Amino acid sequence: MGTPDETTESGAGALAARRIRALIRRAGALAAHRTRALIRRARMSRERYSWRFVNIGLATAILVGSGLAAISGQNATAQAAEKQNDTVVQADWRVDTVLADMSAAAEKAAADQAAAKAAAAAAAAEKARLAALPWTLPSDARITSYFGMRDGRLHGGTDFGEFEGEDIWAAGDGTVSYVGYEEGGYGNVVYIDHGDGIQTRYGHASKILVDEGDKVSKGDTIMLAGDTGRSNGPHLHFEVLIDGEKVDSLKWLEEQGLNPG
Length: 261
Hints:
- The chain starts with a helix and ends in a 6-residue tail after the last helix.
- The chain has helices spanning 4-132, 249-255, and strands spanning 143-145, 148-150, 153-155, 158-161, 167-169, 174-182, 187-195, 198-203, 205-208, 215-216, 221-225, 235-242, 245-247.
- The chain is built from 2 helices and 13 strands.
- Keywords: Membrane, Transmembrane, Transmembrane helix.
- Residues 154-248 form the M23ase beta-sheet core domain.
């Protein structure tokens, strides 16, 4: 063991060492604290500046966006107005076109209706005129041969092309003067005496529907068309005789106010 003095010096030295270590620890802790405080301040400063920049950026973006929106809104409004004007112009143009078409259609319909009425009136007038005439056509078939010379011989009548069995009509009021089969190519034939020296003859009948002495009226069916006698097919051979002489039957019908076609 050491002496008391050595022990005392040794205890004082240990105490001093402990105090020094404590001071060092305190200085280190204080330095660390100050360092952390400085770091926090630096961070806060950066954050404040960062938020300032962020706020400035946001404000700038808002201003720019507002400006762009205003410009876009003006452009959109202008485009909408222009489109509306175009639409109105096009709509006006289409309406004018539709109205013009409707007017033209109405005029055409009115003209067609007037033409139809005129045609109906003309047909009714013609029907009334024909009904008032004492004579009529013996057939409404088309004419296939006329009065005149044919193959060196006189073709003394007018031929109407017929289908087998079609009705043949009396050309006027009169009395059936002859019914039978006549040589010379006429085949089955009917004669009607109309008075005043006028006689009509109807040839090539497939069937005769009247007898001698029958009274007939204009338009009565007297026979059915055929091709009896000298014939190249079903037809009516129609003749007009004045005082026993053959005349142009087609011309005679026209003179009576008829239109054989």
